[in-house]
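Good day; I would like, with your permission, to put a structural problem before you. A protein sequence and the structure tokens that stand for its backbone fold form the material at issue. Thank you for your consideration; the sequence and its tokens are set out here:
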Amino acid sequence: MQNDILLKAKELFLNHGFKSVTMDDLAKELGISKKTIYQFYSDKTALVSAVTDHLFEHISTGISCICDGEKNPIEEMFAIKEFSRSALQDEKSSPHYQLQRYYPKIFAVLVRKQFQTMQNCTQDNIKRGIEMGIYRSDIDLEFITRMFFAGFNAVRHEELFPSDHFNKSKLFNLHLAYHLRGIATPKGLEIIDKITAKS
């Protein structure tokens, strides 16, 4: 039952936002009483924390599996983007913004964990890309890594890119293209063009 609650809460939070979904909504969706939910989660904050932890672990594991594969660094970045988009269900509402606004402590912990994971993954990706000649060798690794992470969070910022004006999926595509085309060599650009031509 606890896993059912967690998975349904994740679905509702991603579709409608962390603030918008109430414990009553969750209980109704599951066909159970709120008392049953409180047997596993002391309050909504505890549930939000559990959902964000679950999402983070799921996405981190998926990204690790992609990085352990045989893709070249550019293909790897496109695969990670698609996996993350799918795992977040295209962020149909603005869960990132609501989490930041209404659960700032949980958000701060999540951002720290995300940065550590993305920093390691991105730096390894760039190093391999340089070795293969598809990324420029004059890249400032620390700067580019942090800029990529900053951009990843910026495109999810509701005030900068409001959902009623910008398509989140398109924003992720634009952000990745901005990142890769800025660091790619002519050889790397050929790979990017081939991948984007298929999509």
